[in-house]
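[Structure tokenization] protein backbone as discrete codes
[Encoding] learned vocabulary of local backbone shapes
[Protein] chain in single-letter code, fold in tokens
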Amino acid sequence: MTDSQIFDQIASTLNSSAKQIKKVADFIDDGAIIPFLARYRQEATGGLDEEQLRAVRDQIDLHRTLEDRKKTILKAIDEQDKLTDELEKKIKSSKDLKTLEDLYLPYKKKRKTRGDMAKEKGLEPLAKKIWDQEIESGDPIEYAREYIDKEKELPDAETVLSTALDIVAEWINESVEVRDTLREIIRKHGVIARRRNRAINERTN
């Protein structure tokens, strides 16, 4: 998104004109501070007061930070040869950092996880079968038997299945839809509780 597009979007959000937003951005980029603009540049900014100017500044900072982060993430995923057209579209259309970071999570460099170790043992195809939930007949243990390999520390079907589930657990954790659903549940039903430390109670009594 270009600066011009950013200004148009902010103008729509704050019920201002893109010209006003651009003027404020130019002043801020040149080092002007909000109290100065509110007091001495009202004519240039269209009469915006301090509260309105701060809202404009914050929106400009947010959008520019978001766009810079998108470029960094797109480059990082592309360097891994994992950037698909669909993923690129989702990243470019993200409107907040939370969603953006959720999309990047599966591709972020991290320490080797249990899921990574399970993939190295060749269990990703089995994990995919579990994830897709398309097989309606047969015993999961029978499918797992195909991957028994003592050299890979997969001595029996039960171990194979539980190890494959490490991959599935990681996919669930990295799912944008799952994370958004959990956030919504917490917002609606979460309870904050405070409990006084028992040791402190004993010392004060």
User: Anything to note?
Assistant: The first helix runs from residue 3 to 14. The mean pLDDT is 88. The chain has 13 helices and no strands. The two ends are 62 Å apart (CA to CA).
